[in-house]
UniProtKB/TrEMBL annotation:
Keywords, in A-Z order: NADP, Oxidoreductase
Gene3D superfamilies for the chain: NAD(P)-binding Rossmann-like Domain
PANTHER family: 2-DEHYDRO-3-DEOXY-D-GLUCONATE 5-DEHYDROGENASE, SHORT-CHAIN DEHYDROGENASES/REDUCTASES FAMILY MEMBER
Entry's Gene Ontology BP terms: secondary metabolite biosynthetic process
PROSITE patterns referenced in this protein's UniProt entry, alphabetically: ADH_SHORT
Keyword Oxidoreductase: yes
GO molecular function: oxidoreductase activity, acting on the CH-OH group of donors, NAD or NADP as acceptor
SUPFAM superfamilies named among the record's database cross-references: NAD(P)-binding Rossmann-fold domains
Protein family: Belongs to the short-chain dehydrogenases/reductases (SDR) family.
Domain of life: Eukaryota
Name of the featured protein: Putative 2-deoxy-D-gluconate 3-dehydrogenase
């Protein structure tokens, strides 16, 4: 008997790992996954401070990161998911600029008894400089957080899903990976060469992983946001000349907002998209069709 439309979009019994879920687009998508029935593991970053002795919990971190301190102070998303939506939510702290810390996310989460089958990579940073003066350290930081950490987390998550017994997945679908790309996966942008390179990489990484994994039950897709009114775009919103130019190009006639992503992320996480993989879904008010 064919599944109903409502059941196709249900995430009941599923668990999602979400990076960058404390504000903006990531927070809205975390809420959407929970509203559809999923439990949520929020990966939040560390803060730094000068210490002489690493804290005991930092034993898996590289030496340069032993000045990190747990940052669980932002519990808004977790509390909303638990109190309003009635789902389970857990905060895991990791520094996405550390490859070793990223490698330990999946083992740590699963050791706590969670069995995640959705991965949403939403965390990202932006640095703006004229390209002829773009600093090496900013280039390295953006590529590590926006691209390398995404690959590492996808790799570890994929290995975890492929290592589970096939009998756990009677439908044949092991899980879903959703990466956050950008319009700059397709275009070059201005004064953001590192961000453009990282998001171009996300697009190709998504396709490459899909080629290997969709036949084994792991769908891999990406969402490419257009111009969205979030903290990352404050500089553009406050620049009268750039804002006017951007608005003139958006067929929808407005900047997007985080709630515009709720339907897209539930679709890609759910059985409704079981035959969709390797795609970059633009949520951009029609920008790329202009």
């Amino acid at each position: 008997m064919a599944a109903t439309v409502a059941s196709l979009f249900s995430l009941s019994g599923r668990t999602a790992i979400v990076t960058g879920g404390t504000r903006g687009i990531g927070q809205a998508m975390a809420y959407a996954l929970a509203e559809a029935g999923a439990d949520i593991i929020l990966v939040q970053v560390c803060l730094y401070f000068a210490v002489l002795t690493p804290p005991s919990w930092a034993t898996h971190m590289t030496p340069e990161l032993t000045g990190a301190q747990r940052d669980e102070s932002n519990t808004t998303t977790r509390d909303e998911i638990i109190n309003r939506l009635g789902r389970k939510a857990h905060i895991h702290v990791a520094e996405l600029s550390s490859r070793e810390a990223v490698k330990h996310i999946i083992p740590t989460v699963t050791s706590l008894g969670f069995t995640p089958d959705i991965l949403l990579n939403c965390a990202g940073i932006q640095r703006r400089h004229p390209s002829e003066r773009f600093p090496d350290e900013d280039w390295d930081e953006v590529l590590q957080v926006n691209l390398s950490s995404v690959f590492i987390l996808c790799r570890e998550f994929g290995a975890y899903l492929l290592g589970r017994d096939a009998s756990e997945f009677p439908s044949g679908r092991r899980g879903s990976i959703i990466n956050i790309a950008s319009l700059l996966s397709f275009q070059g942008g201005i004064t953001v060469p590192a961000y453009a390179a990282s998001k171009g990489g996300i697009s190709q990484l998504t396709k490459a992983l899909s080629n290997e994994w969709v036949g084994q039950g792991i769908n891999v897709n990406a969402i490419a946001p257009g111009y969205i009114a979030t903290d990352m775009n404050t500089a553009l919103i406050n620049d009268p000349n750039r804002n006017v130019g951007i608005m003139a190009r958006i067929p929808a006639g407005r900047w997007g907002n985080p709630e515009d992503f709720k339907g897209a992320v539930v679709f890609l996480a759910s059985a409704a998209s079981s035959y969709v993989s390797g795609e970059i879904l633009c949520v951009d008010g029609g920008w790329m069709g202009r």
